[in-house]
Amino acid sequence: MDEEITIIDSNTRNEKIKNFFVNNKRNLIVGFSIIFFLIIGYLSLKEIEKREKIKLANQFNSIKINFKVENKQSTIEQLKKLVNQKDATYSPLALYFLIDNKLTDDKNEINILFDELINKTSLDEEIKNLIIYKKALFNSDVITENDLLKILSPIINSDSIWKSHSLYLMAEYFYSKEENQKAKEFFNKIILLSDANNDIIVESKKRLNRDFSE
C-alpha cells in the first residue's frame, strides 16, 4: 500500500514538472536566452577590456621608447591623450612620466591632468590617495597653506597608508616657512599614529629632537 502511494506521489510530481515546462515553455526559452546572451556579453566585454589594456600598454611603451627631447611636444600630446583615457594603470603612469621628465613647466596643465585622474578615473582608493599626495607634493612650493591642506584633507582625515606622508609634507611645508610651532604639531601627529610609516616616524623624531628640543 505504501509503495503504491509512493508511486502515485512520484507520478503526480513528475506530471506537475512536465506540465510546468509545457505551460512555461516560451518563458523558459526567453529566460535561458537572456542568460545566455548576458554571459556572452560579459565575456565579450572582458575580451574588449583586455584588448584595450594591451593597446594602452603598447602605446605607453612606444611613447617611452620613442621619446626624444626634440619631439617633446609630440610626446606631451600623446601622454595627455593617455591620461584622458582614464585607465587605472596607464593614465597615472603617463602623468608620472610627464612630470618625472619635466616635459612641461605649465603647472596649470599638470593640475588639470591630476584632477582628471582624481575626479574622473576609476581607481583603487589607495592609488587615488597616492595621486592626491603627488599633486600636493607637486604644488607645495607655490601654493598657500590653505590650498595645500585642502588638497591633502581627504588623506589626512582618513586612515590611508599615505596619511603619515601627508602629515610630513605639511610639517616640512611649515618648517620651510619658519612656522615652527605648526611644523612641530604635525611632526608630533606623525609619531602618535599607530600605523605611520616607520621611516617617517624615525625622521620625525629626529627633526623634533634636533630642531624643536627645548
Tag the structure with descriptive keywords.
single chain, 214 residues, mainly alpha, 10 helices, flat
Can you characterise this structure?
The longest helix has 42 residues, at 25-66. It is built from ten helices and no strands. Helices cover 79% and strands 0% of the residues. Helix 2 (25-66) packs antiparallel against helix 3, helix 7 packs antiparallel against helix 8 and helix 8 runs antiparallel to helix 9 (180-192). The protein has a domain at 143-214. The protein is mainly α.
Structure, briefly:
This protein has a domain at 143-214. Helices cover 79% and strands 0% of the residues. The chain has helices at 2-23, 25-66, 72-83, 90-100, 107-120, 125-139, 145-156, 163-176, 180-192, 198-211.
What is the topology?
Elements: H1 2-23, H2 25-66, H3 72-83, H4 90-100, H5 107-120, H6 125-139, H7 145-156, H8 163-176, H9 180-192, H10 198-211
Helix pairs in contact: 2-3, 2-4, 3-4, 4-5, 5-6, 6-7, 7-8, 8-9, 9-10
Instruction: Specify Rg, calculated over alpha carbons.
Output: 30 Å
Q: Give the low-confidence spans.
A: none
Number of strands: 0
What overall form do the CA principal axes indicate?
Answer: flat
**Separate helix tally:** 10
Order of helices and strands: HHHHHHHHHH
**Secondary-structure content class:** mainly alpha
Give the DSSP E fraction (strand runs of 2 or more residues).
Answer: under 5%
Largest sheet composition: none
The averaged pLDDT comes out at 86
Percent in helix: over 70%
